[in-house]
Amino acid sequence: MGERVSTMALREVCSSEEIAEGQHKLINHYKGEIGVVRYNGRLVAIRNRCPHAGAQLLLKAVRPTTVAACPHQIELGYQDGVFTCPWHHWEFDLRDGSCLADPRLKLEKFPVQETDGKIVVEIPD
Ligand code: FES
């Protein structure tokens, strides 16, 4: 019996203008949703599932986290691409997918490209 070889396929998500700064778009995949997020002008594609307990990470909006502010003030933002899971508020770094509280937990990421006004994700077949 042969061993199954995992292959990747390119999938067009949408046109570039459909994902504005701080926004995201979800696509369905047989292993679960994949979210494409634009932050700080960059695109990141992640599995829409928290590695802690399985929450949908991307609901209506990408949840910000606290950022450096004046003493006794709290501001929300996406400093360094960090955002918050809606269930238990663990924070994740979109740059490498790591959880700030436990770097052994990682978001599942996928290569994403933006070419000729189209956003394309490379996902498993
Ligand atoms: S499910 Fe995301 S922090 Fe718990």
From TrEMBL:
<keyword id="KW-0411">Iron-sulfur</keyword>
<feature type="domain" description="Rieske">
    <location>
        <begin position="11"/>
        <end position="121"/>
    </location>
</feature>
<keyword id="KW-0001">2Fe-2S</keyword>
<dbReference type="Pfam" id="PF00355">
    <property type="entry name" value="Rieske"/>
</dbReference>
<protein>
    <submittedName>
        <fullName>Rieske (2Fe-2S) domain protein</fullName>
    </submittedName>
</protein>
<keyword id="KW-0408">Iron</keyword>
<keyword id="KW-0479">Metal-binding</keyword>
<keyword id="KW-0614">Plasmid</keyword>
<dbReference type="InterPro" id="IPR036922">
    <property type="entry name" value="Rieske_2Fe-2S_sf"/>
</dbReference>
<dbReference type="GO" id="GO:0046872">
    <property type="term" value="F:metal ion binding"/>
</dbReference>
<comment type="similarity">
    <text>Belongs to the bacterial ring-hydroxylating dioxygenase ferredoxin component family.</text>
</comment>
<dbReference type="GO" id="GO:0051537">
    <property type="term" value="F:2 iron, 2 sulfur cluster binding"/>
</dbReference>
<dbReference type="InterPro" id="IPR017941">
    <property type="entry name" value="Rieske_2Fe-2S"/>
</dbReference>
